[in-house]
Design a protein that fits this description.
This protein has about 160 residues and is an alpha/beta fold. It has one domain: Molybdenum Cofactor Biosythetic Enzyme, Chain A, CATH 3.40.980.10. It has 6 helices and 6 strands. The protein has a 6-stranded mixed beta sheet, with helices on both faces. Helix 2 crosses helix 6 (about 135-155) and helix 3 crosses helix 4. The longest helix has 22 residues, at about 135-155. About 40% of the residues are buried.
C-alpha cells in the first residue's frame, strides 16, 4: 500500500528563510525509505489561522492519507499547532501521541513538554510531531508500524480486517 503524505513544517524562522527546514526533509526521507509518497510539502509561520486553512484544504482535497506537522508543539507563545489541529479534526487519536510521548520520555525528560495531538478529519489522519529533526523522525518511527492499518481503516478497505 502506498500511503500519500503531506508534510507541513511550522516555523516562523524557516518560513522567512532565516533558517533552513531540516525536519521536513528528514521526514520525507524516512517516508520515501518506507516506499510511501510525499505528495505535498509546505512551510508556514506559526499562525493558527494559516495552519488551520492548510490542514483543512489538504484533508478535504482527498489526495492525502496522512498529514504530518512538524513544529509548534511546545510551550512557546507562538506554538499553536495543537490548537490549529484541534480546530480542524473531527475525531481525536490519542493513542498515537501517547505512545510517542512515552517512547520519547525514555530519551529525554523534555518529552513531557510536548503538546502534540493526533486526529482524523474525514479520511485523513493528522499527526503533530516535534520541530527538531531528531525528535520528528524518532516519533514517526515509533508509530510507523500502525500507519498502514490506520489508513486501511480510514479507507474502509476490506483488507483491514485481516490484520486484526
Amino acid at each position: 500500500m502506498i500511503i500519500r503524505f503531506g508534510l507541513l513544517t511550522l516555523s516562523d524562522r524557516s518560513s522567512r528563510g532565516d533558517r533552513e527546514d531540516s525536519s521536513g526533509p528528514a521526514l520525507a526521507r524516512l517516508i520515501q525509505d518506507e516506499g510511501w509518497s510525499v505528495a505535498k510539502q509546505q512551510i508556514l509561520p506559526d499562525e493558527e489561522s494559516a495552519i488551520r486553512a492548510v490542514l483543512t484544504e489538504w484533508s478535504d482535497g482527498g489526495g492525502l492519507d496522512i498529514i504530518l506537522t512538524t513544529g509548534g508543539t511546545g510551550f512557546s507563545l507562538r506554538d499553536v499547532t495543537p490548537e490549529a489541529t484541534k480546530a480542524v479534526i473531527q475525531r481525536e487519536a490519542p493513542g498515537l501521541t501517547e505512545v510517542m510521548r512515552a517512547e520519547s520520555l525514555k530519551k529525554t525528560p523534555h518529552a513531557m513538554l510536548s503538546r502534540a495531538i493526533a486526529g482524523i478529519r474525514g479520511r485523513t489522519l493528522i499527526i503533530n510531531l516535534p520541530g527538531s529533526p531528531k525528535g520528528a523522525v524518532e516519533n514517526l518511527q515509533t508509530i510507523l508500524p500502525v500507519l498502514s492499518h490506520a489508513v486501511q481503516l480510514l479507507q474502509d478497505d476490506p483488507a483491514s480486517e485481516s490484520s486484526h
